[in-house]
Amino acid sequence: MTGEEIARILGRLPELVNENEGLVRRGRTLSGEFLVQADDTPVHIRVHEGRIEAVETGPFRMRAWRFAIKAEADAWTRHWEAMPAPGYHDVIAMTRLGVARLEGDLQPLMAHLRYVKEVLALPRRFAKPTETGAGRA
Questions:
Q1: Residue 71: which of 23, 10, 19, 134 has the closest Cα?
Q2: Cβ atoms within 10 Å, residue 107
Q3: Given this structure, which CATH class describes domain 3-123?
Q4: Which of 16, 33, 76, 107 has the most CB atoms around its CB within 10 Å?
Q5: In sequence order, what DSSP letters do the residues of 37-53 get, joined into one string?
Q6: Which residues contact residue 137 at a Cβ distance below 8 angstroms, ignoring those fewer than 6 apart?
Q7: What would the DSSP string read from start to end of 59-90?
Q8: Measured distance CA(19)–CA(40) in Å, rounded
Q9: Rounded alpha-carbon distances, angstroms, from residue 72 to 23, 53, 94, 97, 111
Q10: Is 134 exposed, middle or buried (0-12, 13-18, 19+ CB in 10 A)?
Q11: In this structure, what are the phi and psi dihedrals at residue 108, rounded to the nearest 5 degrees?
């Protein structure tokens, strides 16, 4: 997938998150904007009390965000496989593997880590059941 394709998938987060009351409840103390980047394509995600208010694709000049999670499009593609390979199963593992990086004020990310990890894993719903990271190197 390309960065633009990743951005289109992230554009579906409002419907995926806002219909999930348990997830909204877990994120109820998070309000603000964070950045997810795939290749050179920035995607700003605005959250208010756990609900995704907006997902906007850049580029933007001087757009503020609290924290950012940046990775190549291939890493996001592997993260969203039905059964991701070890190291691609969550965003923290991706940083340890060296395929993603975190930037900015990490306090709100760490305070809401489960929520953010679950939000960013939701696109796995679109993975084909036969897709598996088990055989990938």
A1: 10
A2: 10
A3: alpha beta
A4: 76
A5: EETTEEEEEEEETTEEE
A6: none
A7: --SS---SEEEEE-HHHHHHHTSSSPPTTSSS
A8: 30
A9: 26, 25, 11, 13, 25
A10: exposed
A11: -65, -30
**Per-residue pLDDT tens over the stretch 10-50:** 999 999 999 999 999 999 999 999 999 999 999 999 999 99
**Single-letter amino acid code for the residue at 5:** E
SS3 58: coil
Read off φ and ψ for residue 132, nearest 5 degrees.
-150, 140
Burial of 74 (0-12, 13-18, 19+ CB in 10 A): middle
Q: Examine the pLDDT at 5 and tell me if it is beyond 80.
A: yes
User: Residue ranges of the domains in the chain?
Assistant: 3-123
Helix (H) or strand (E) holding 34, with range, is: strand 32-38
Residue 37 to residue 7: CA distance in whole angstroms: 8
